[in-house]
Design brief:
The complex is a heterodimer of chains A (176) and B (577). Chain A is of the alpha+beta class and 176 residues long. Helix content of chain A is 25%, strand content 39%. Chain A is built from 4 helices and 9 strands; from the N terminus they run E-H-E-E-H-E-E-H-E-E-H-E-E. Chain B is 36% helix and 16% strand. Classes of the chains: A alpha+beta (176), B alpha/beta (577).
Chain lengths: 176, 577
């Protein structure tokens, strides 16, 4: 879904989902402030990931926002008004590296007939097997969100028992 | 110097220049009320915490200094939420100190505990939960800094009881001077001057405009930019509309002043904006009450938008030139840029535009019909008499509804900071407590609260505060026995089906009620009684006065742009149709 580009602008086709990276003060309640802002302004969050940075005074919140719900500019400006938000940048897909982690448990038939196909898929995607028993296998994959979408789609034929994604994180590309 | 958190809090308020605190004590804030006894800070004991909030707003509006509120946890805090939201919507600088249950008890559903910072997150510019006594001077300084800089607003500081209670070791702290360099606000960078390139672009648009209008908003007053605005308007000879939040920022008696635009604005102000080819929006936010239906608003106008809050630029109407900055500084820059490109001489000939505007002014002045003998009073008449019998610099506060619109329409505001009302939130009951706060801040000025009967019943108890504290405000109470504005909408849009809007002329007996609260009170029922009653009220300076004006219920506010319609569909008084 995140890979789908939807035309929202009048001239050039615009992306519907934008990744915004904010550096925030690492204080209690900051995530609540951001979430409350999104709720009361009617902004839709597609995914969200939050964790401390290398500097323990700050955390980074990476989120994907649906600009069909509000213009990106408003989202950024309203976020900027939060006192605890120190820095905001929008990362374009072309100029950033994005990764997301997926944990997924897949059904495997006991006879083992389809096990081989699954192992091939794991190999193709460079996923890891974290745990397994007679009937299920738990896998992990860290990759571009679009790659996770694809992996998820391919796994459906085996039967997904449980699936959890972290939401994307991103950093700007290093350039040349 | 070693002290406890309660002493530090009071000292920190003193260091910020606080001269008055509006508040009401209770369990969690008790330890802070003890050192207040020795403090030079004046404390005004309110009768309800909402009153404290609106008083602090009135004080801030009138003086430009932040209003300070101190109340207890739980219900004390929830009672002030309306006032905080009001201050947030109208960008009023407030610092609200709330008591909280002891830090270790937070989250246990303790007595009078509520999640104050959680509840007020959406209605404050920022809030703090202080966890250590040692942080008190710094956080109080940060709170005042945030409340008063950039786009002003309310800031709440929630203080757990243990860090201010001298009997608790957690309250021990060592005092330090709260200065700017101890602040820890890495994410807060309020805007100052505007970008010179954008200011030049704005000047060029002005020099090319044939039908420009200056759309002056409350930001002019917040930036204390009234003098700069007048210089600008006179330099380019461009008419000015002043929004409900900006009344008084440009003198009503100035020949360039068109008065209030919007849903109940005057015909000329509304129509000049509609017909304009350039709106110069200064500290205004294109509120729906000003624009009417957005796609029909000022359809031919380019827009210059100056605001200190970047999020206002483009939020409602996409500007052609957007300048983020403090209005005072940006207008000064704009004046310089206009002078650099020729000043007054470089402005196009706008005589046609001016004569079009004066034509509208002549044809569609504000009008009402005087009452016939035996009929109830016309509020417009009373307001005209009140306006003409009070000093020019009288401060007028207002509640919300028809009386508010008439007051804004019929008063002549020739000085900034003389009109105080609840614009964004539209809070009924604002008037009386706001007047008290304004009078405390400006004791030498006459302060009149213009109020409706519905509003009065919401916060009248604060007249007890005014009597006890000897704050001699005057109240012009328009009793039309109805929630008048709502009644009008039911008349116009609900086929005169009046649902739950009748209040009664007789109950309560406003004169007895006001007298019971320590006021002088008079009932006025006929036009010839109006001036003498006001004259008597003006002479009383040792206690509050309430004049109850029995007014006609059927009176409607005109002009009017019906909700959801374009400003071009403005409905004028029946006599002008």
């Amino acid at each position: 879904m995140t890979a789908a580009a939807t035309a929202t602008g009048q001239s050039a086709p615009a992306r519907r989902f934008h990744t915004i990276v904010t550096t925030v003060e690492n204080k209690p309640g900051v995530l609540a402030r951001v979430a409350s802002l999104f709720a009361r302004r009617g902004f839709n969050i597609e995914s969200l990931a939050v964790a401390p940075t290398a500097d323990e005074r700050f955390s980074r919140i990476t989120f994907t926002v649906d600009v069909a719900s509000a213009p990106l500019e408003q989202v950024v400006k309203q976020l900027d008004k939060l006192i605890n938000v120190v820095e905001i940048s929008e990362l374009s897909a072309a100029e950033s590296v994005e990764r997301e982690l997926m944990l997924v448990t897949v059904a495997v038939d006991a006879a083992g007939g389809r096990r081989h196909g699954l192992l091939e898929l794991i190999d193709d995607f460079r996923a890891y097997v974290l745990d397994e028993n007679q009937s299920q296998m738990m896998l992990s994959l860290a990759a571009r969100p679009a790659r996770l979408d694809e992996f998820e789609e391919r796994l459906r034929t085996f039967g997904i028992v449980q699936l959890q994604r972290t939401g994307r994180v991103a950093l700007p590309s290093l350039g040349s | 110097m070693d002290m406890n958190g309660g002493q530090a809090l009071v000292k920190a308020l003193e260091c910020e220049g606080t001269e008055v605190v509006f508040g009401l004590p209770g369990g969690a804030i008790l330890p802070v009320y003890d050192p207040i006894i020795e403090s030079p800070v004046r404390h005004i004991l309110v009768r309800h915490e909402q009153g404290a909030g609106h008083m602090a707003e009135g004080y801030a509006h009138a003086t430009g200094r932040p209003g300070v509120v101190m109340i207890t946890s739980g219900p004390g805090a929830t009672n002030v939420v309306t006032a905080l939201c009001d201050a947030y919507m109208d960008s009023v600088p407030l610092v609200c100190i709330t008591g909280q249950v002891p830090y270790a008890a937070i989250g246990t559903d303790a007595f009078q505990e509520c999640d104050t910072t959680g509840i007020t997150m959406a209605v404050t510019k920022h809030n703090f939960l202080v966890t250590e006594a040692q942080d008190i001077p710094r956080i109080v300084h940060e709170a005042f800094h945030i409340a008063t800089t950039g786009r002003p607003g309310p800031v709440l500081v929630d203080i757990p009881k243990d860090i201010v209670d001298p009997r608790n070791p957690r309250s021990a702290m060592t005092w330090y001077e709260p200065t700017d360099d101890i602040m820890e606000l890495p994410g807060y960078k309020p805007a100052t001057a505007g970008d010179p390139g954008l200011v030049r672009a704005a000047a060029e648009l002005i020099c090319a405009a044939e039908r420009p209008v200056i759309y002056a908003g409350g930001g002019i007053l917040k930036a204390r930019a009234a003098a700069e605005l007048q210089t600008l308007a006179e330099l380019i000879d461009v008419p000015v509309v002043t929004t409900l939040m900006a009344r008084g920022c440009f003198p009503d008696s100035h020949e360039l002043c068109l008065g209030m635009p919007g849903m109940h604005g005057n015909y000329t102000a509304v129509t000049a904006m509609q017909s304009s080819d350039l709106l110069i929006a200064l500290g205004a936010r294109f509120d729906d009450r000003v624009t009417g239906r957005l796609d029909g608003f000022a359809p031919d106008a380019k827009v210059i938008h100056v605001d200190i809050d970047a999020a206002e630029l483009g939020k409602v109407r996409t500007p052609d030139v957007a300048v983020r900055g403090d209005c005072k500084l940006v207008i000064a820059e704009l004046i310089e840029a206009l002078r650099a490109c020729g000043g007054a001489a470089a402005q196009p000939d706008r005589r046609v535009w001016r004569s079009q505007i004066s034509g509208w002014q002549e044809r569609y002045p504000l009008v009402y019909e005087q009452s016939e003998p035996g009929e109830l009073l016309k509020p417009q008449y009373v307001l005209e008499v009140l306006r003409d019998s009070t000093p020019d610099d009288t401060i007028v506060t207002s509640g919300v509804g028809q009386h508010q619109m008439w007051a804004s329409q019929y008063w002549r505001f020739d000085h900034p900071y003389t009109w105080i009302n609840s614009g964004g939130l539209g809070t009924m009951g604002f008037s009386v407590p706001a007047a008290i706060g304004a009078k405390v801040g400006m004791p030498d000025r006459m302060v009149w609260a213009v109020d409706g009967d519905g509003c009065f019943q919401m916060t009248a108890q604060e007249l007890v505060t005014a009597s006890m504290e000897r704050i001699p405000i005057k109240v012009a109470l328009f009793n039309n026995a109805y929630l008048g504005m709502v009644r009008k909408w039911q008349e116009m849009f609900y086929e005169e089906r009046y649902s739950e809007v009748y209040l009664s002329y007789e109950i309560p007996d406003y004169v007895k009620w006001a007298e019971a609260m320590g006021c002088v009170a008079l009932r006025v029922e006929s036009p010839e009684e109006v001036a003498p009653a006001i004259a008597k009220a003006n002479e009383i300076d040792d206690r509050p006065v309430v004049l109850e004006f029995r007014s006609s219920a059927g009176e409607n506010v005109y002009p009017m742009v019906p909700a959801g319609q374009s400003n071009s569909d403005i409905v004028v008084d029946p006599s002008q149709r």
